[in-house]
Every structure is written in structure tokens, then in C-alpha cells.
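re: ur question from yesterday

yeah so i grabbed the chain u mentioned. its 199 aa long if i counted rite. heres the sequnce exactly as i have it in my notes:
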Amino acid sequence: MQTPEEPSNATHVLAAAFPSRLADDVRDVLAVVPTAELSPARSFTVEVRGEEVAIPSRIYNEEPGADPQRSLTPTQQVILHCLYTRHSDGRVRQRHLERIVACDEPWVVPFVMQLAGEYVLEILEAIAGGLPGLSIPGSAARRLYGEFIVRNPAFFALTEQRAVSYWSCYYRWRYGEFGMYPGSALLEAFRAAAREQVG
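ran it thru and got these C-alpha cells back, copy pasting raw so excuse formatting
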């Protein structure tokens, strides 16, 4: 059972989700994030351009109001949206995903890719719609995601396994074969991006 979070520990957990060079920006973002009654759920670890980050599977913080968000710089707003893609409410995850999916920062990629293995169909559609360049050889999006997958093959393999499991559990009745499921085409685009990176 989760326990009420210790603010300093929760801050450390959330800050660990981003490269160290963003520490000052993350601190400013966390200053406007309401305190949650529950601690962030266990983290998953990935490599972003040679640095390990640990991203919480779920957070339970309410969203900050519009005024505090407006006080943030553009980079800080992206950090905020990344954090809320981990929210326990799928509608909140989708809303914040839509604000960052087209971002070309390498540290945004794991937040987007984690959602490709989750069960909300509208989120899968938002990723596919927000990354039209993913299917274009040589595109910036293809290089960005391909590089991440090559550096994190175990994470991508787990993402694929989760996508198949969720399809089987929730969507097999609607899409009789996994190849018909929207998540399948998205994962194939990610695999093609990785193949392009390794030649």
C-alpha cells in the first residue's frame, strides 16, 4: 500500500525523471505542482543521450492552475507536461501528451514512448497523429526515436509486450488480429526508426 509522500523524497523522485542539466528548471516546475497524498509509483529507468533517468510509472498530483503554469518558461512547461503524462488519470495523460508529442527534445521521448505501451486507444492515436514524420525515412522524428530505441532495447521490448497484452485483454474483440490494432502500426514505425539507426 502506498503511503503519504514525504515532500523531499517525492521531489527527488520527480527530479530524477529528467537529465541533470535541467535540475533548476525541474525545481521551478515542482514549485507549482500541488503536493500529492500518494507517492509516485515505482520508476522505470532509461538512458537519454548517455545519462540515466528514472521516470515514475504514475503520479497522483492534481494539475496546477493556469496562472502558475503561465509563470513557467517554455522548457519548464514541457517538463510539466512530461510529468503529467504519468498521471493516474488517462484523460490527464492524453491532454498533456498532446502538448509534447511533437517536441524534438531527446528527454521527452521516453515519456511519449511509455504511453505507446499503455491501454488508452485515444493516446495511441494522439501519438501517431503527433508524429507524422515517424514514417518518413531520414526525418528528425525517426532519428530521435530510433536513437532512443537503439540505446534502450529492453525498454522497447517491454513496451511491445505490454501493447500486445493490452490489445489481447481490451481490444481483441474489436481488432481480431494485432496487426489491425492502431498500436501495432505505431510500434512498427518505431521498429523501422531503430532499424534505420543501425543501418
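noticed a couple things. The chain has two domains: 1-115, 122-199. also Confidence is low (pLDDT under 50) at residues 1-7.
anyway ttyl
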